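Journal club side-thread
Mid-discussion, someone asked how the predicted structure for our own chain would compare to the paper's figures. Pasting it here so we can look after the session.
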Amino acid sequence: MSEQTHRTPTRRDLARHTGDIRAYGGVRAVVLDDGVERGIRVLEFSTGGGLYFEVLVDRAMDIGVAEFDGVSVGWRSRTGFRHPGLHEYADEEGLSWLRSMSGLVVTGGLDHTLFGGDVDATHYRYPPKQTVRHGLHGRVANIPARLTGYGEQWVSDDRCVLWAEGEVVQATNFGEHLVLRRRIEADLGGTEIRLTDRVTNAGFDPTPHMFLYHVNVGWPFLDEGTRFVADVEETVWQTESVDEQGVDHRTFHAPLPGFVEQVYEHRLRADEKGRHRVGLVNDVRAMAFELDVDASAFPCFFQWLNLREGGWAVGLEPSTHHVAGDAAARADGSMIWLEHGEERRYESVFRFGRTGR
């Protein structure tokens, strides 16, 4: 097979060979129709460069299935991509988020991340609401988006961008009114996903803001011997299970019976462009996955190991706040408070690649 065969076709090339760009790659809207996933709107992205992924419109436009060269990279957990109408936010002492945790990207926020509990709500000036109770990683991941557009756009004769945009509103009366505007892009023929998020306080009360991406990688890309690669300056915190189990967090073990999750907070060294870049490498498959985020927007980073049989996964988690969470951020002054119209912007890249054997 010649090298020419692998070149991304130009706009003229495609027009000469087909009347439908999706013969090579594109974006298609579908609706899932069975089990707990029934009714979820999905956008299927196929770049033609080996990358395929699904945007879950009714799950905050998070990224569910993600495959590269036919190999599943995004974690497929036992929960499936559960319809948000089934979500029970306050159930199981706030841990019900775990009943809908699956896919490459599950977003945490918009006013809370990490473990839950009661925090002060008197800034909303509603006497019956002195506190608010949060669950694990907040509410946003189970809120449907308003889809504002998607498709294929030629930005030059030799570059076409596959894109989708939507708006997720997290709001209540006498409480927060936060809006997440999300844009997802991938180039035709490309091997990366570009995610741009803007979070705005549309309300008139000062509102806390916390944000996190739970980026989950699973089998078969994740395999015994897959390596974690990052410029770690210092590991500033880890769960007790690390010392108890002694399982390496840099080169991964095969699934283990009864494994207790291990979580680390690493302080990363930013590159010359002010970015944090972390990745996973599977040498046997000669494949790599890299997460590239703005270090100033996401100064904190967690690594999650779930090496238990039946749920094998590794999580890469860029975060606005340290692992101690909401109450600690309020106490030490690190909580982000958004005034009316104030916005935070997050620009991240997910790269899929082939390595030399």
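Post-session note: The chain has three helices and 23 strands.
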